[in-house]
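Morning. Coffee machine broken again, so started the prediction first thing and wrote up yesterday's gels while waiting. Chain of 663 residues, entered below exactly as on the submission form.
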Amino acid sequence: MNRTLLKMNKIMNISFIIILLLLDVVFAQAQQKKMDSASFYNEVKTYVNPVLPGDHPDPTLFRKGKDFYYCGSSFHFTPYLPIYHSTDLVHWEIVSRVVYPQNAGFVQDEPSKGIWQGAITYFNHSFWIYFSANGDQQWFSKATTAYGPWSKPVMVKTTPQLGPLGYDNSIFIDDDGQPYMLIKNGQKINRIHAIGKDGQLTGKMINLDWINAHLQYSWAEGPVMCKRNGYYYYFPAGSVAGGQYVLRTKVLTGDSTKWERLGNFFKPLDDPNSPFRVANHIGAPLQLADGTWWTLAQSYEDANDDDWSGTGRQTSLCPVIWDGDRPWGIPPTSYPVIRPDLPQANGILWRSVHSDYFKEDRLNVCWHFLNRRAETECTLLGKSGWVRLSPKKGERAHLLQKETDHYYNAVTRVKIDENDTTSSAGLYLTNGNQSVNIRLFAGYKNSNKIILQLDTAIRSIPNTFGNTVWLKLERKGHFISGYCSSDDDRWVSLGAPISSVPLDKVQPKWNAWVGTSLGLFAENKPADFNCFICKDGFSSMPAIGYRNYFGIKMINKDAITNTSESGGWAMISGVDLGTKNNSAAKINITASALTNGTIQVWLDDLKNGKLIATIPIPSTGGKNNWKVFSGAVNKLSGHHDVFVKFLKSKPGNILIQSIRFSK
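Came back before lunch.
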């Protein structure tokens, strides 16, 4: 009998694997058949993950009409809970922040603490966001629109039966409009509770503690739900290290016999080059008008001994396919994926660090601080184009954004008292608790100097520029270089680059649950900053720093070329082309070619964007014979996604190494 059972189990396991492989083949073939069309080489019909690069942990996903909203854990980054908006699930923008320091006295203000979760939803004619603070308390804020303003937080009341309401909870809205809170507290507590019109819990609890009673799913955290064909689907995650699972039932009940454990949610990853290998902690899957399903999932970036875990948990957009009434998530890969069939985002660029010229009367919502005190040390100086950081003696003030890219140039103009031997100010890259950081600054080390420093790795030159100096921090993968200038035109190098691996790699204690931040700092004494620019389009931008592509491959980690006779394209996101009074007049492409060819450059999109240059690339006599080819552009300014398009040509004929705009 035992042998018979073992044999049957073996047959069932083999059958299960075959089904997975068949599903994988069917999905891949369907995608490939569609992408064989020539239109994919001439329009942006695909995306490459992550769609939310940089630190975007614990995603929650919600749709209201034609708009999609994302929120997740902000931890100690304040103002807390940035709300992201999208119309196509690929391009995202921050539209508001929920909890500002003046309303956050109940929040623990230290690394790894702060606010967790951030579950955005809509019911009773309002947007609501539920979140946890201090480990076991639930709170909510509400607003008439996701753009805010958001109400002062209200604590969710619990009962002796429920106890602490936990963290990483989410909200599920049933077909009849009834909202439920999915409660998670510790490893073994998973529960569901109805929510009343006032936002407070009401009715009876549905006890699902049996789900992880034997720690089958590690922590079984971040549970979310969706509904399809009369089934309720419950998705718990394993832990920050990975694991995503799914259960289903026809009736919302605590009776375990009415539920089915379906096992892993994500299909096995079949891409050895995917940098995101442990996707989990998904947002609730949702269905579009064309019948397709999608979800968001987080993952650290670490593949082929190239560790970017320090960046934080980055968020990918994942298709969901169905085998009857059994859902399967498609994990993020390094390949292009066909975009959701949704209208193109109007005016929303690919998610990247934002430039700021500080001309508004309020600080842009893209900025955050690592503690509440830091916000009081930041002052916009009217609409003059300057911001002041005023640290206390012996301390460091800062103004930061989430770092989103591996290749960029960040630029600022800083004004300090060069004769003060205690002050320093400049550009700043830091981990979650500021224990590992890279600074490019004007300061004093035995004399007035411009200094690039990570721990004991130091590059410096004398400061011959006076009180006001331009600084440029260049990141090329895991290498950081520093430059300085008197006029933002003629740049002086500080010397050989510094390795950023200590910052980029996995950090102790999960980097206080967050990722790397980039921005400005001042130490000991006040300093003024005239701008923050990223990515600077007037600096050389490596072509391999693209964020989206089709029909393209890298060559020796140094250049890109097309892989099809139909052409191909690559997109460099969030390029800053200056202001109207300081705009781009020329584009320069460093390339090589075996035979004559042509490159086009577009802004923002290949169909609805703007063709700014068509540049002939004559033969350079060999792939390693690099030359610069230029074309005039018509006074371009602002923040743009830049597309480099290969026209129809033999694959590998033209190699592009970098692009740069000039004035």
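Residues 1-9 have pLDDT under 50 and may be disordered. Going to sketch it on the whiteboard this afternoon.
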